[in-house]
What we know:
The chain is an alpha/beta fold. 24% of the residues lie in helices and 24% in strands. The chain is built from eleven helices and 19 strands.
Amino acid sequence: MPDDATSTPHPGNAAKIDPSAPLPETMRAWVLGGPEELSLQEKPLPRPGKAEVLVRVDAVAICATDLEILKYGTPALIEGGPPFHKNFTPGHEYMGTVAALGPGVDEFAVGDRVTVEIHAGCGQCKRCRMGMYTSCHNYGKNYGDQNKGHRANGFTTDGGFAEYAVNNINTLIRVPDTMSDEEATLVVTAGTSMYGLTELGGLVAGESVVVIGPGAIGLLAVAVAKALGAAPVILVGTRESRNAIGRKLGADHVIDARNEDVVARVKELTGNGADYVVDCAGTETTVNQSVHMTNRGGRICLAAFPKSAVSFDLGALAVNNIYLYGIRGEGKSATHRAMAFMQAGRFDASQIHTHTFPLEDLPEALRYARDRVDDAIKVVVSTRPGLAGGAKAR
């Protein structure tokens, strides 16, 4: 793998570090070999370049997309292809402490607690100039002579399943002292939910919102919609334990898709159908439910990646003037807005954190997340000794 994650400082400019806390030459990092083959290795400490900082990773949450990358490679893209056998370190939902500053960086100080966005666009393509950096046209072109400056940590550049990572300053959000490391890792998840509602129009106060799928993004979509003033907020799910968390996060109504007609029940609760629907399940069934439960002129956000092509009722979509949106990641600074809500206590994102493991136990943490062991939702890996302790006390 190219030295993308160890960005070279401008000649004559050294990174600024705290002399009382010298940095090591190497770090522990999990490296992806073949599909689902991870090994804990020593890698050179990455160096921040212009507009970058070195983050000491204190905690990193496991996302369903991490599991996809480990098994299938996509949507990660390293050296123009799959990430396997390229010295690549995955992981993208992390927080930590600023350990060193790249040349010219004065927006942050060594010692600041920060959490991260995934994407830093190239800043020069059409989409980046529009503020759509998660749709950067130069996604993955971060190597060799065609290095365009784009980075998506854990996707196209080294991520957070390590002791240190390099981040562009545009991807950092300060973490308040009152917030735990584990909760701070959830800002990306909340930011994705926030981005979905932003793309649907943002002004959802007094509008009805349906969220399908009580996974991590779906549960925080409930929380964000409620914080934005949506009414009613309706959650559709099949796992009662997840539905119960949805109620705590603000769902006014919960529909169990196993024993209710979802579309009929939504129409009963809303009158003519929902104003907004956020589909966090991404199956053919839920996409069609979304189309048929949305009011005329309403909007649907597809926030999940289906494993294969789905068929849906395009005619109903067109006849009823329903708008369909797809989102990628946590764009348009949605993580900053999500953090503002979390810091103000508008919702308790920690409700979805269920387990914590130490860095060296990442394979077990991944098993918990993949197999939903002990009803795991968000599993967090900590690099700080003494803070990782298995199941979270509820």
